[in-house]
Amino acid sequence: MSDIEFEKYLKDDEHILWSHIPEKGDRKIQPFPLICGIIILAAAIINFIVETGDARYYGSSIIGIVAMMFMSNCIERKDTYVVTDKRVMAFRGRRYHAMPLEWIRFTCSFEMNNDGIGMVEVGRHLSDKNGIVFRNIKDPGYVERIIRENAKLHE
To answer: Element (H or E) spanning 87, and its range?
Structure first.
C-alpha cells in the first residue's frame, strides 16, 4: 500500500503528514501460538489413533480446527498507519479505524528496544478502548510530536 492508495480514504482537503507502510516479507513468527498449535495438532493425531468409530473423526476434526486457529495466529501481521492533518488511521487488511484529531486528548509513546522501534497510543483519555495504537514503528517520539502538534494537545 502506498500513499497513493490511501487517497480513496481521504476527505476533501485532507493531506498525509506521516505514514507507516510495512515492507513485504516484514513479518515475524510468534513462537507461543505456533508451539500451542503443534501440541494441539499432536493431540488430534493421538485422538485419531486411539479412538474408534465416530468419536475418532469428530474429535480429531474439532481438535485439528483448534490447532489451526492457534497456528494461524503465529504470524504477526503488520498494520499500516497514516496521520493526516485531520485524522489518525490504522489499517489492518481491508479494515481500518480512524479517529479525528480533535477527539485526541491523550498521546503516549515509548521505544520497546534500542533500535528505535516502539509504539504510540492515542485516544480521548488514558484508558480509551476506542483509541488507536501504532505498533512496531520507527521513531515513535517523532510520530507522537506530529500528532500532538496537529491535534493541538500542547496548548
So the answer is: strand 87-92
Q: What nine digits make up the cell of 61?
A: 476434526
Task: Determine the Cα angle at 29 with ends 23 and 32, to 5°.
Answer: 150
Q: CA 81: distance to chain centroid? A: 10
Quote the CA–CA distance of 83 and 9 in Å, as a whole number: 12
Task: List pLDDT tens digits, range 1-34.
Answer: 455 577 788 888 888 899 888 776 555 666 776 7
Spatial CA neighbour of 41 closest among 66, 59, 58? 66
Can you read off the three cell numbers belonging to residue 3? 500513499
| Beta carbons of 106 and 122 less than 8 angstroms apart | yes
- Within 13 Å of residue 145, how many CA atoms lie on the same side as its CB? 4
pLDDT in tens, 92-142: 877 888 898 888 888 888 877 777 888 898 888 777 777 888 888 888 889
Determine contact, residues 51/95, Cβ cutoff 8 Å: no
Would the pTM of this model clear 0.70, i.e. be above it? no
